Amino acid sequence: MTWTPAKLTALKDRFDGCDGADMFTPRNREIADRIFSSGGRRPAPYAGIPSLLDAPLLDLNGAEWQELQIALFGAPMDLGVTNRNGARFGPRALRSIERVGPYNDALDCAPIHEMRVADIGDVPFQSRFDLQQSHRDIESHIGRLIDAGVAPLMVGGDHSVSHPALRAVGRQGAVGMIHIDAHCDTAGSYEGEKFHHGGPFRNAVLDGVLDPERTIQIGIRGAAGYIWEFSEISGMTIVQARDISEHKLQDIISLARETVGDGPTYLSFDIDSLDPAFAPGTGTPEVGGLTTREAMTLIRGMKGLDIIGGDVVEVAPAYDPTTNTAQNGAQMLFEILSVMQFSPSLKPL
After folding, report:
1. Model pTM?
2. DSSP reduced 3-state for 191
């Protein structure tokens, strides 16, 4: 093959005068038509009121929720932490990330533009001091979404917020779960408190809203392994971080898909599943974690499963002046949203 003046002329004839929205491949044109306005214009990512993944903002009163397929929202609460606090600022930090998406090249979708998605604000907590009341507020909030046929996608907050989320999505029957984390989060009571961020999934199983035999926990590591015996005894599948490598990722994806099957499944992503090199801004960092590429591959591998809701939790931005933790948290939120676009139970347009 030789580059020739004729080939250059042909390219000039085709592309001179085109703007950023002018595409020739049908699928590319379809995506561009959704994202660009006339003249190749797109909103500046750093302008306007920030929202999760730059989704449209909807009023918190719920009057327009019926129109949505998926609702993004924050749960700025970290009353359940056992180490460093600050995850209450996670939703605000993810909203400040000005450029994630809008196109997912691996899954060939633009979820904000191809679904009815909105940022509906934050859970209206009744108290900033009461952990159990905050959990009731989350459960009630998500329950309203489910009653409207809307799938919830939440940004925490500490990982204790996943327990009330599962109580809401699993109220008609126990659901499965794909859980990507450094910790199993199936510990018992600490100092008289069982609703901390180290125990949401024990609580959910014992409440009958999480099926442990349809639960897989990926990325587990750290010196607290002896605490998580509930996961093994209850029948959860555990993939330790030390067993994850590039050539094993597809096997792990296959195991996850086999574990949860075709039933309703919740996807919970704790930012501390990533190695602290990628996400230092979290309350309980553990070395030896996932890379961002591994985490994205894992989430993308869940395309086609019945993902009925999910969360990204434990982003504590104060411990990361680079903002990389929030950037990676927003990216994982985008990946979960993208996978949810292919969920068989998604409300039709």
Report:
1. 0.95
2. coil
